[in-house]
Amino acid sequence: MTEENQTISEEQYSHPKDGKKSKKQKRLLCITALILIILLILFGLYRCGYLGGRQENDSDIVIGAGVKEGEMNTGETEIREDGSEAGANGKANMTVKINSRPVFADGESAGDLNIVNPEANLLYMKAEIRLDDTGEVIYESGAIPPNHYIDNDKLAKVLEKGAHNAIAHVTLFDPDNPDAQYNSANFNLVITIEN
What we know:
Low-confidence stretches: 75-89
Mean pLDDT: 80
Radius of gyration: 29 Å
Number of helices: 1
């Protein structure tokens, strides 16, 4: 019998530790790629306004984070500043829907603000809510385009349990000329914090 001597070159020979190293490197690479994908998805959601980010439009007007497109069906009547029901509307007239008695489960939860800028307004709208007794701003909507609304949102200040009188100052403005305000109105609110 003849024995053949075989020589194994370093290229053909794989050390057992090299396989473990390779598996660890592959696992680390996969984990890094997964984290990167998750971060990109979260950034995309933030930019779209789903994670508290603000939406932007072409005119550099910052759209409020909780603003949604379409008409909100609340069963409430649209009221103009003069108290009449809404009809055909132009830039000089204002139609607003807002919940005059929003309820929040606690001071840190979102409540049913139901702020609507109907399509009839033709202009952007913004709402600012101040406490009646101190004048402190507790909510700012950001820009709300026509045919958009905010149903639920959090207040900027944590309020204690109970009823709080407030004033919502609503203003219409042209996104091409934000300093030219066309119409504004104040609405009395009673904000209820349940717990």
